[in-house]
Design goal:
Elements lengths: L5 E5 L4 H17 L3 E5 L4 H7 L5 E4 L2 E5 L4 H15 L3
Length: 88
């Protein structure tokens, strides 16, 4: 299995993180993509970088969104990257 293309950086008990996760799960279910979730409380470098922006969404290792995930924008980013690099 390949690396997940989407990363969700957040923390427990964060309602915005819950909302972002729901959008990402829906997009992944429709597109066949996968995601990984990382907790800023477990990774000091993430806390230093993103403490005021969570949840943060990365696509292919680059910051895509923060605070909220726009579903259509996420879908476009995933499809655009596939077209550019011949992925899936």
């Amino acid at each position: 299995m390949s690396q997940p293309r989407i990363e969700l950086i957040g923390k427990p008990d964060c309602h915005l993180c819950d909302d972002a996760r729901a959008v990402i799960e829906r997009v992944c279910a429709d597109t066949g993509e996968s995601f990984v979730e990382r907790n800023i409380l477990d990774e000091p470098e993430l806390m230093a970088s993103y403490a005021e922006q969570i949840p943060v969404t990365l696509v292919d290792g680059k910051q895509h969104d923060y605070w909220r995930v726009d579903e259509q924008r996420l879908r476009k980013a995933l499809s655009r990257r596939r077209k550019l690099f011949g992925k899936r």
